TrEMBL record:
It comes from Rhodococcus wratislaviensis NBRC 100605. GO terms for molecular function: 3 iron, 4 sulfur cluster binding; metal ion binding. PANTHER family: FERREDOXIN. Its cofactor is [3Fe-4S] cluster. This is Putative 3Fe-4S ferredoxin. The keyword Transport applies. It holds the Pfam family Fer4_15. Keywords: 3Fe-4S, Electron transport, Iron, Iron-sulfur, Metal-binding, Transport. Residues 3-31 form the 4Fe-4S ferredoxin-type domain.
Length: 66
């Protein structure tokens, strides 16, 4: 199973919580908003990504499993 994560920049307000909590997956663009740095989330980081999803104040992060 692979997990892909997306950030909805229409909802994101740039709090940066995801970038702080999981820098292996979330990077920062030139304006301070998160971008997904990996095509597929490594298995050992899935729990951290799920925590970011739950902790996002704008509910701007989602993940899909394949």
């Amino acid at each position: 199973m692979t997990v892909q994560v997306q950030v909805d920049l229409n909802r994101c307000q740039g709090h940066g919580k995801c970038m702080i909590a999981c820098p292996e997956v979330f990077d920062e663009d030139g304006q301070g908003y998160p971008v997904v740095a990996v095509a597929e989330v490594p298995a050992d980081l899935v729990a951290a990504v799920n925590a970011c999803i739950d902790d996002c104040p704008e509910r701007a992060i989602s993940a899909t499993s394949r």
